[in-house]
Amino acid sequence: MKSSTPGIHTQSEQDQLKTQHLVGQFYGREIRASAILNGDVEPLPECYDLYHILDEYTDAYTADWTSNNMRPKLRKISSVI
């Protein structure tokens, strides 16, 4: 909900502004979170370990999900007499 008083922000708006400020400080420029999450910007060297861990988790999760949910369907073979 947007505050009706100019210059006064709701808690949600304050949190968003803080996040934008911190991301801007970290990247050294203004950048949207969606650009980071979508891979539109190159990860900073400080983030490589985190991205490596996330990639490993994603690969393991995907493999586990695939093995549990994408089993081949068994065909019913009709006997020919």
Question: Which descriptors apply to this entry?
Answer:
single chain, 81 residues, 0% strand, elongated, 54% helix, mainly alpha
Can you summarize this structure?
This protein has helices spanning 11-27, 33-37, 48-69. The chain is an all-alpha fold.
Could you please describe the fold and organization of this structure?
The chain contains 3 helices and no strands. With 81 residues, the chain is mostly helical. It is elongated and about 85 Å long. The mean pLDDT is 83.
Q: What is the element string, with H for helices and E for strands?
A: HHH
Number of domains: 1
Number of strands: 0
* Range of helix content: 40-55%
Strand content: under 5%
Largest sheet: none
Question: What structural class do you assign from the helix and strand content?
Answer: mainly alpha
C-alpha end-to-end distance: 72 Å
Summed up, the helix count is 3
Globular, elongated, flat, extended or rod-shaped: what is the shape? Answer: elongated
